[in-house]
Specification:
The complex is a heterodimer of chains A (about 220) and B (about 375). With about 220 residues, chain A is an alpha+beta fold. Chain A contains three helices and twelve strands, in the order H-H-E-E-E-E-H-E-E-E-E-E-E-E-E. A 16-stranded antiparallel beta barrel of chain B has the order 1-2-3-4-5-6-7-8-9-10-11-12-13-14-15-16. Classes of the chains: A alpha+beta (about 220), B mainly beta (about 375).
Chain lengths: ~220, ~375
C-alpha cells in the first residue's frame, strides 16, 4: 500500500524518504558506534589500587608491588549494547609503588622508571573508548585499548576489564601485561636474581558518577 | 616434690633453648619468599646465606645499605675464588624466669658456631656447622622420649649436596630433620617434643623437589650415634606443601614421619600454614604424635602440639610477634601445657641482631605458671 501511495505522489515520496533516512540514521547511529541512549557521565576513582607481579629466574620467587594511589578520570554512559567507557586518563605516582623492601623500591625506581635525564615521570595510561556488553547478574567484560607511558614513553597497552555495578557505583578490575623490552628497559638484576621482562599488572578500583576531577585512591601515603 | 623438681628442670631447659631469632626466616613469606632457597644456600633454610640472601639481610637491617661482596685478593684467597662461603656466628642468650613454685633462675648461654659451605663443582657442594657452647640445652627428657645427651662441641650439620637443577636437590649427611613451618626456636613444643633439639642431628638422605607452587621433601634417616641406647631411631617421612593462591604467600602443607627404635617407635602427622600479607603474617602448625613404647613398659602415648604465631613487621628491621602454644599428652603421662610469648626482633646490621621476649607457660593440670623474659644478641661475620 505504501508503495502505491509513493508512486502516486512523487514529491511526498522524496520528502518522506529523506525523513525516514534521518530518523533511521538517528536510531541506528548508536548501534553502529556502540553508543548510548543517555548522556555521558564523568566519573572519578573512589578507591583504587594497582598491583604488579613479575617472576624471576629463581623458581619460587616473584616480586609483588602495589600502589594505593591511582588517579583516574573517565566518561561513562549506558549504551544500548552496554556500558560505554571513554576518555580514560589514569596516572600512578612512581613513589607510591612499593614492594615491601625499601632498597628494592629504590632499585626499581632507578632501573625501571628513571629517564636518562634523571626524571621519574608518573605511570600514565590513556585509553580510547570501548563498550562493555552488559550481562545479567555477571560482570561486564571488555578490553580497553590505550597507551601506557613508562619513563614518559607511550606504548600500546590493553587492559582486560571486568565491571560490576554496585548501586550507583562501578567496581572495576583489570589485567594487563607490560613488556619491559618494548620500552627499551633491561630486566633488572641484583646479586644473581634477575626479573622477567613481562610484568603482570592488576587494577582494582571503584568509580562513581561525579565531578570529572582526578582524585587519589585510598589516600596519600 | 619430685614433680616440682622435674618441672623446675624443664623450665630451666626451656629457658636455655629459647630466644632464637625470628628475624627473616619463615616470616619472610610476607614478602613472597615462600621457601628458604631464594636466600639460603641450603633449601632447608637456616645456615649460611647466598649472595642474594646477604643482600636481603643487609637491606632489611636498620642500616639498610647495599650489600657489596668483598672483592680483593685476600677475599678471593679466603673464599677459594668464590667457592667457599663461611662465617663465625656468636649467639648470646640470657633468660630469667620466675616459676611460681620455685626460686627464680637465670641462664646465660653463649654459643659460637663456625659454618662453611664449599662448592666443589657446579652441582656438588659440602656444608658443615660446628657449635661450641658452655651451657648445655638438651630438650626435655620424658620417660617415653628420652633426651639426646648434650655436648660442649657438636657437629650440627655435615652434608653433601647435589643440585642437578633449580628444582631438585639431594642432601646426605647429618642435620636436623625437615620440619613444617621451620621456625628456628627449638624450645617450641612442636620441636622439643618431637625430637628436634640442638643435639638431634640424625644421619639422613633427603630430597628437595620444588615447582612454581609446590615443594615436596621426602627423607629417610638413621641414628647419628649420640642417642641413648635403645633410642637409635631409623625412619622416614615427607613434607608436601602447596602455594594456594599462587603468589608465594599462602603456603599450606602436610608432614608425616614414621620411625622405630629398639625401645619403641613413633608416628607423626602434621599440618601447617605460612601466610603472608605484606607487613604481617601468620605461621601455624599442629602435629599429632603417636608413640608405641616397649621399654621400660609397653605403653602407647598420644601427643598433640600446636603452634600459632602472628607477626607484624613494624619496620623492615623490626618484627613483633605474638605466639601461642599448646601441648597435650594423654595418660599415663598426662600433660597439659599452654604458653604465650611476645617477641621483638631487631636487625641493626647484617651482622648484628637483637631479640627480646616475654613468655608465660602455664601447666593446666597444676595451675602453675612460669613467666620468663629473655634477651638474645647475635653477631656474625659477613664477607
Amino acid at each position: 500500500m505504501i508503495v502505491v501511495s509513493l508512486r502516486m505522489q512523487p514529491w511526498i515520496n522524496g520528502r518522506l524518504l529523506t525523513l525516514w533516512i534521518i530518523v533511521l540514521a538517528i536510531i541506528a547511529w548508536p548501534c553502529v558506534t556502540g553508543g548510548t541512549a543517555g548522556d555521558s557521565t564523568p566519573v572519578e576513582v573512589q578507591r583504587g589500587s594497582v598491583a604488579f607481579d613479575v617472576g624471576t629466574n629463581m623458581l619460587s620467587l616473584s616480586v609483588h608491588g602495589t600502589s594505593d594511589v591511582l588517579r583516574a578520570s573517565a566518561h561513562l554512559r549506558d549504551g544500548n549494547q552496554g556500558l560505554v567507557i571513554e576518555h580514560v586518563e589514569a596516572t600512578v605516582p612512581i613513589e607510591s609503588l612499593t614492594t615491601g623492601l625499601r632498597l628494592r623500591d629504590e632499585h626499581m625506581r632507578k632501573y625501571i622508571f628513571t629517564t636518562s635525564t634523571g626524571d621519574i615521570p608518573d605511570l600514565r595510561f590513556s585509553g580510547s573508548s570501548v563498550t562493555c556488553p552488559a550481562a545479567a547478574d555477571a560482570p561486564s567484560g571488555c578490553v580497553l585499548p590505550g597507551e601506557l607511558a613508562v619513563r614518559g614513553t607511550p606504548r600500546p597497552f590493553a587492559v582486560a576489564l571486568k565491571i560490576s555495578r554496585k548501586g550507583a557505583a562501578f567496581r572495576v578490575t583489570g589485567d594487563g601485561m607490560v613488556n619491559l623490552a618494548e620500552y627499551g628497559i633491561p630486566a633488572p638484576s641484583q646479586l644473581g636474581v634477575k626479573t622477567d621482562e613481562e610484568v603482570k599488572v592488576h587494577l582494582d578500583f571503584t568509580v562513581r558518577p561525579g565531578v570529572p576531577v582526578s582524585t587519589s585512591g585510598r589516600g596519600a601515603r | 616434690m619430685m614433680r616440682a623438681r622435674v618441672l623446675t628442670h624443664l623450665v630451666v631447659i626451656l629457658a636455655a633453648l629459647e630466644a632464637t631469632p625470628v628475624l627473616a626466616l619463615p616470616t619472610m613469606i610476607r614478602l613472597g619468599y615462600d621457601t628458604c632457597v631464594a636466600c639460603h644456600l641450603s633449601p632447608q633454610g637456616g645456615g649460611l646465606l647466598n649472595e642474594y640472601g646477604r643482600g636481603i639481610d643487609e637491606a632489611q637491617s636498620l642500616r639498610g645499605n647495599e650489600y657489596r661482596p668483598v672483592d680483593n685478593e685476600l677475599g678471593r684467597i679466603m673464599t677459594w675464588h668464590g667457592r667457599i662461603t663461611q662465617d663465625l656466628r656468636l649467639v648470646v642468650q640470657d633468660t630469667r624466669m620466675w616459676p611460681s613454685h620455685q626460686q627464680a633462675a637465670n641462664v646465660l648461654r653463649p654459643r659460637l658456631m663456625y659454618r662453611n659451605v664449599t662448592q666443589l663443582t657446579r652441582t656438588v657442594r659440602v656444608s658443615g656447622t660446628i657449635t661450641g657452647e658452655t651451657e648445655a640445652a638438651p630438650r626435655p627428657a620424658r620417660v617415653y622420649d628420652p633426651g639426646t645427651p648434650p655436648a660442649s662441641a657438636f657437629v650440627t650439620t655435615a652434608l653433601v649436596h647435589y643440585r642437578p637443577g633449580k628444582a631438585l636437590e639431594l642432601a646426605a649427611g647429618r642435620d636436623q630433620l625437615p620440619t613444617g613451618i621451620n621456625v628456628p626456636d627449638l624450645a617450641l613444643f612442636i620441636k622439643s617434643r618431637n625430637r628436634l633439639g640442638y643435639y638431634d642431628a640424625p644421619l639422613q638422605l633427603k630430597m628437595y623437589w620444588a615447582g612454581q607452587r609446590y615443594q615436596v621433601v621426602p627423607f629417610v634417616y638413621g641414628p647419628a650415634g649420640n642417642e641413648p641406647a635403645g633410642e637409635r631411631e631409623s625412619g622416614g617421612g615427607a613434607l608436601a606443601e602447596f602455594d594456594v593462591l599462587g603468589r608465594h604467600r599462602t603456603v599450606v602443607g602436610l608432614s608425616a614421619l614414621q620411625a622405630g627404635a629398639r625401645s619403641g617407635g613413633r608416628r607423626m602427622v602434621g599440618t601447617y600454614a605460612r601466610l603472608g600479607f605484606g607487613a604481617w603474617g601468620i605461621l601455624a602448625e599442629h602435629d599429632v604424635t603417636d608413640r608405641a613404647r616397649n621399654s621400660p613398659t609397653d605403653v602407647d602415648v598420644r601427643q598433640h602440639a600446636t603452634y600459632g604465631q602472628l607477626f607484624w613487621a613494624l619496620r623492615e628491621w623490626l618484627v613483633v610477634s605474638a605466639i601461642g602454644e599448646r601441648l597435650s599428652v594423654e595418660p599415663p603421662f598426662e600433660e597439659r601445657l599452654a604458653a604465650g610469648k611476645i617477641e621483638i626482633a631487631t636487625r641493626f646490621t647484617s651482622f648484628a641482631s637483637v631479640a627480646v621476649h616475654a613468655r608465660v607457660q602455664r601447666d593446666l593440670l597444676t595451675g602453675r605458671q612460669s613467666p620468663a623474659v629473655g634477651f638474645q644478641a647475635a653477631l656474625k661475620t659477613v664477607h
